[in-house]
Amino acid sequence: MKADEIQRSGSFGLSVINILWAIMGGTRYSHDDVQFRDLLNKITALFRTGNPSGDILDVIPFLRFINSKIAGYRERKSATINGQIFLRDSIQDHMKTFDENAPRDFIDVYLKEMKKNPMFTAESVSNSIDYFWLYMVLNPDIQKKLHNEIDSVVGRSRRPSLDDRPNLPYLEAAITESYRVNPIAPQTPHHCTLQDAKLRGYDIPKGSAVLLNLYSVLNDKKHWGDPEVYRPERFLDSNGKYVKDEWMINFGVGKRICLGESLARNVVFLFIATFLHEFNFSVPEGDPKPSTYPTPGFTTCPQKFRIRMKQRL
Ligand code: HEM
């Protein structure tokens, strides 16, 4: 081998990771650091055993119980666990000395962002508000009733506030109905069973991936009668008082229920109440009636549509 040739065998790995990790985690590791070298070797092995189009374990997952070496399962698992431990420890170290005003690296910036509001959550709130406008332009009669309620409770001389929320039952019902008819999260993220469980006669083994189909509950025909219809009145009693329905699980249920629920509810309410107080919403002349069929994705949102906003006097 000539002097200016080197063998491509991951020799640069540690240096490259050191540069990236200095930006991410603010630490540089010695080339002799045994723990860091071990992690790097495992990650390299992980990438070598992986296959972007999937492998036999994706088709027959239980094979890992018969031979855990198959398709590199054992290496993958060990590299993943080591990676998680490494990241968890680094984040915990950062939290101990975290100063919001002096971010040292990407982990600090991320911790600061997490304190403010995760991006995903901003998306869920703004998509929920978009769905509400969609049902407003499609239902001018309901919008009129909301304008009347806001005018009689808030008046025209001030803006709505959170204190008005209990006194605006029709608005509360209209927002809840938009959460129901087209939920931004039709299903929850995956969870994992910690022990063997039984559900309606089905055995669910420990370690199974489980997710909730929220849409099926929010649009159950037997419970709601006409789930496809946007009808806020279903959340009002005969005296016009807002009534909760335990089938409204658009923020999830159980231990992993949405942590931002009350914040989200308040933000959505305040935003919608303020805009409804000020504007009339309609479909611009000549535009087609917007579709209620959602745009799919990690969360859903309405299809693109235009709104005409006219200031109320
Ligand atoms: C209208 C807006 C929102 C809706 C409809 C919504 C809905 C959901 C749903 C369905 C889940 C999954 C629950 C489960 O897995 O069982 C979830 C999880 C979560 N949400 Fe929200 N969310 C909204 C806004 C927010 C906001 C504003 C925040 C934070 C400020 C937030 C923070 C979280 C967190 C941290 C989780 C994970 C909880 C866990 O796994 O323990 N969400 N949300």
Automatic annotation (TrEMBL):
Assigned keywords, A-Z: Heme, Iron, Metal-binding, Monooxygenase, Oxidoreductase
Keyword Transport appears in the UniProt entry: no
Cofactor(s) the protein requires to work: heme
GO MF, any single term: oxidoreductase activity, acting on paired donors, with incorporation or reduction of molecular oxygen, reduced flavin or flavoprotein as one donor, and incorporation of one atom of oxygen
GO biological process: organic acid metabolic process; xenobiotic metabolic process
Residues the record lists as binding heme: C258
The keyword Transmembrane belongs to this UniProt entry's keyword annotation: no
Assigned GO CC terms: cytoplasm
Source organism superkingdom: Eukaryota
Family membership noted in the UniProt record: Belongs to the cytochrome P450 family.
PANTHER family: CYTOCHROME P450 15A1 (PTHR24300:SF376), CYTOCHROME P450 508A4-RELATED (PTHR24300)
Official protein name in the record: Methyl farnesoate epoxidase
